[in-house]
Amino acid sequence: MPRTLLLFIVALFAASPLGAEDAVDTASAAPAEPVRVMILGSYHFANPGRGMANMQVDDVLAERRQREIAVLVESLARWQPTKIAVETVASTPDLTLAGYARAEELLGRSANESVQIGYRLARMLDHGAVYGFDEQAESGEPGYFPMGAVVAHAEKTGRIEVIERLKREIDARIADEQARLAEQSIAESLIVHNDPDRLDADHDRFYYALLAIGDADEQPGAVLNAMWYMRNAKMFTKLMQVAEPGDRVLAVVGSGHAAWLRDLTRRMPGYELVESLPYVRAAAIASQAGAED
Question: Using alpha carbons only, what angle is made at residue 38 by residues 180 and 53, rounded to the nearest 5 degrees?
Answer without folding.
Answer: 40
